[in-house]
Write a structure and sequence with these properties.
Blueprint lengths: L2 E7 L4 H12 L3 E5 L10 H13 L5 E6 L3 H7 L7 E3 L3 H9 L5 E5 L5 H13 L8 H5 L5
Helix pairs in contact: 1-5, 2-3, 4-5
């Protein structure tokens, strides 16, 4: 079964989101794009919250958020219990976010990394899987109850 990936960006991440979407569509990934459709200014939290709800409702397996730096999107996404959004700037971080931290959203900065590096980071994220084991105790402590 194909991986269900939901993507969204603000105006600062639009170009990178489009590049990644085009590159990932050829892989075994079903992509849902929540927007934005162009570089017109929008508020990044609105897109982050919509993407998180899509994952939490079970309509996607993983998410990818892109804004200018990735910081705002990661902060907004991590407000949702059950979401573990990781801002990654290299492929190793991305792989570890999935394997050790059970991250379910990758955040990227469209104004700080280029498309080639972003694609490498995204592929590591999508190919990774949570190892469980010794990491589970720590993951259980992330969501404050």
């Amino acid at each position: 079964m194909a991986l269900r990936l939901v993507m969204a960006s603000d105006h600062g991440g639009f170009a990178l989101k489009e590049d990644l979407k085009k590159a990932l569509e050829s892989a075994d990934v079903l992509i849902t794009d929540l927007g934005v459709p162009n570089e017109s200014s929008v508020d990044y939290p609105d897109l982050a919250h919509a993407l998180c709800e899509t994952i939490l409702d079970g309509n996607a397996d993983l998410g990818l958020l892109v804004c200018g730096t990735g910081i705002g999107m990661s902060m907004a996404a991590n407000r949702h219990p059950g979401i573990r959004a990781a801002l990654c700037t290299d492929p190793y971080m991305s792989r570890m976010a999935r394997e050790h931290n059970d991250a379910n959203i990758l955040c990227l900065g469209g104004r700080v990394i280029g498309p080639s590096l972003a694609l490498d980071i995204a592929r590591e994220f999508l190919d990774g899987s949570y190892e469980g084991g010794r990491h589970t105790r720590r993951i259980d402590k992330i969501d404050l109850r």
